[in-house]
Amino acid sequence: MIRINDDVTIEERELNFEYARSSGPGGQNVNKVETKATLRFSLTETTSLTDEQKDLIRERLPGRITKKDVLRVMCQRHRTREANRKECFERFATLLADALTEDPERRPTRVPRKTKRRRLENKKRRGRIKASRGPVERE
Quick check: 1 and 11 in contact, CB under 8 A? Predict the structure, then answer.
């Protein structure tokens, strides 16, 4: 079980992993060992999330979700498959936790009276300057 937050846990059997050759560190090993890990999580097939949570994830992580409604997390930073797999789990949990947190409600604020007054005074001053640039009358 992967714990996302207090309300959400996802079973590991719902996650699929693919491995490929990594472009990251590894020296000569990089050409022969598949260390890059890609975690795949199908939003349509999961039973761990409600429909509202799935919609929230789709809305907040559109670049990570494929047309087949699969969330992908890739990691190739480490030299071993196990370390990359572990980092995929951590990134996945962080992504979902961030996507599922509700934004705080915005409290409306007003512009302070002093700021309004200062803005209007500056506008009047600029207006007087521009008005004084008009044509000069000759006598």
Answer: yes
pLDDT of residue 53: 80
What's the rounded mean pLDDT across residues 70-82?
80
Where on the phi/psi map is residue 96: left (φ > 0), alpha (ψ -120 to 50), or beta?
Answer: alpha
The answer to whether the predicted template modeling score (pTM) of the entire model surpasses 0.85 is no
Distance between CA atoms of 26 and 38, rounded to whole angstroms? Answer: 17
- What's the CA gap between 126 and 139, in Å, rounded? 28
Q: Model confidence at 30, in pLDDT bands (50, 70, 90)?
A: low
User: What CATH architecture does domain 2-100 belong to?
Assistant: 2-Layer Sandwich (3.30)
40 forms beta bridges with 16, 72
